Amino acid sequence: MPADTEKRAAAQAAAQLVEDGMRVGLGTGSTVAFLLPALAARGLRGLRCVATSTATEQRARELGLAVESFDRLDRLDIAIDGADQVAPDGWLVKGGGGAHTREKAVAVTADRFVVIVHAEKLVDAIHGPVPLELMRFGLPSTLRRLGGRERVRIREGWPPSPDNGVIADLEGPVGDPAEVAGRLAGTVGVVDHGLFAPELVTEVIVAGPGGVEHRHQ
Ligand SMILES: O=C(CO)[C@H](O)[C@H](O)COP(=O)(O)O
User: What integer is the mean pLDDT of 158-183?
Assistant: First the structure.
């Protein structure tokens, strides 16, 4: 199956998990772009959605999905999002689209966090680049404490948007994701990082040449 066919298949499977009246977190990216029409096509009643990026919000609204501010909801029934890497131990890398801080905030709010990927996202072990969101204030200091510019590459052509701070990537091997995630979380100036721990994830839906597989964590 070509990647887009697989992305669509994973997205359609996830759309089936949503029921009338649910509060739904909508992720960001090209796989989620297939989720939004699949969800809209279900014609569910009383959905209340929050979006992890302005791009997702705009597209969801165009499709007639009711998107509200995340300021108004403190619990979600389900959140559905893509990923850049999925490791066998359940660790994820997210943030290829620079939305990982919002995506994590939405994921932790949901009773059920469902990840939708095509088979190429499966990796043997988590590796760099790991997306970062950094405060603009004191950026040189944060970069130095993270290991300098050989270790952290600021994404070119990503000016600060209403959605994000400074988006960068931590390069090189990751080793133990839990250790790296802890170190990044403890680094002043790092808003958040794209490592998602297995405990955050309820289910990964993987679409590959053999069909769609639901992996429960
Ligand atoms: O984390 C993300 C955006 O910040 C995306 O979910 C991730 O990059 C996967 O994107 P795609 O579905 O386009 O491969």
Answer: 87
